[in-house]
Amino acid sequence: MNYSRAFILLSVIFLASCSTLKQMANVQKPTANVSGVALTGVTLDSLTLAVDLDVANPNPFAINTGAFNLDLAVDSKSIASVDKDNAGVELPAKGTAKTTLPLTLRFVDLYEAVAGLKDENEFAYALAGSVSVALPILGEQEVPLSFNGSLPIPKIPKISLKSAELGSSSWRGAEMAVVLDVTNPNVFGINLNELAYQINAAGTSVGGGSLDAINLERGQQQEVTIPIKLSFSEIGMSLYKILTGSAPVEVGVSGSADINPDLPLWKPDPLSFDVSKSLTR
To answer: What is residue 2's predicted lDDT score, i.e. its pLDDT?
Structure first.
C-alpha cells in the first residue's frame, strides 16, 4: 500500500514536472511600450517628464524585470537619458505591469545639440530604450520600446510699443493714444492678468493704470490701445510745448503683468516690460 502511494506521488510530481517543462519550453518574450508621456515640471530652463511604461508578460508564470534604459533623441541626437538598474518590477502571469520613469530635459542641451531649435516653439522627439528580463531557457533578454511625440519650448510673451499718437488738443489739455503689440509666441494659450502700466513723455510721467486680462491664443498677436487724457494744468506748460512742438518726443511705457499659461505646471514669474517710441502728431 505504501508502494502504491509512493508511486502515485511520484507520478503526480512527474506529470507536474512535465507540465512545467512544457511551459518553460514554450516561454515567450514579454513586450513593452510607452503608454503615455506627461509633463510633471516646466521652467524656462527645462522640462521634466513622467514616462509611463507598460510591460506585458504572455507567459503562464510570473517574472521580474531587471534594468530599464530610456533615451530621448531629437534629430537623431541624444539629449537626455535615464537608466534604472535592478528595477525589479514583477510581471504577473499573463498580465501587464506598469511603471513610470522620470526624465529631465535641459533646453541648453537641446540647443547645443540641434542648431536652430532655439527659435522654435516646439520640437519633435523620439524615445527609445529597453527593459531587461531574465527568462527560463532563453536567459537575459532585452525587450525594446519606442515612442514619438512633440513637446513645447515655453517662452515669455512679448510686448512692444506699436505707436504713440497725439490727438485733439485745446488750451486745457490733449488726448493721446498708446498702442501696444502683445504677442504670444507659444503653441499654447496664455492670459496676461493685472497688467499695470506707467506712461511717460520726455521723461515725465503722464499717466498710469491697469488693463483687463488679455487672452492670447497660441501664436496670437493682439493690439491693445491705452487712451490717455493729458491735463496741461497737471503736466505743466513746458511739457505742453514739447508735446505740441515739432521736435521728436520719446514716449515710454513700462509695467508688469502676471502670466497664466495654458500649460500645466508652468508658473512663470511676472512679465516686466519697458518699451518706447517717438510720438506721432
So the answer is: 56
The pLDDT tens digits for 222-264 are 999 999 998 878 778 778 788 888 889 999 999 999 999 999 8
Q: Which whole-number Å values give the CA distances from 39 to 123, 132, 209, 253, in the listed order?
A: 14, 26, 37, 36
Q: Which cell is 32 given?
A: 513593452
3-state secondary structure 26-68: CCCCCEEEEEEEEEEEECCCEEEEEEEEEEEECCCCCEEEEEE
The three grid cell numbers given for residue 79, joined into one nine-digit string:
539629449
Given the DSSP bridges, would you call strands 271-278 and 250-261 parallel, antiparallel or unpaired?
antiparallel
Q: pTM for the whole thing? A: 0.79
Residues 6+ apart with CB under 8 A from 170: none
DSSP string, 224-256: EEEEEEEEHHHH-HHHHHHHHSSS--EEEEEEE
User: Three-state SS for 20?
Assistant: helix
Q: How high is the pLDDT of residue 106?
A: 96
Which residues of the chain have a pLDDT value below 70?
Answer: 1-25
Q: How far is CA 172 from the centre of its chain?
A: 52
C-alpha closest to that of 121 among 184, 75, 73 = 184
Cell of 263: 500649460
CA–CA separation, 253 vs 103, rounded Å?
41
H-assigned helices in the chain? 2-25, 107-113, 232-235, 237-244
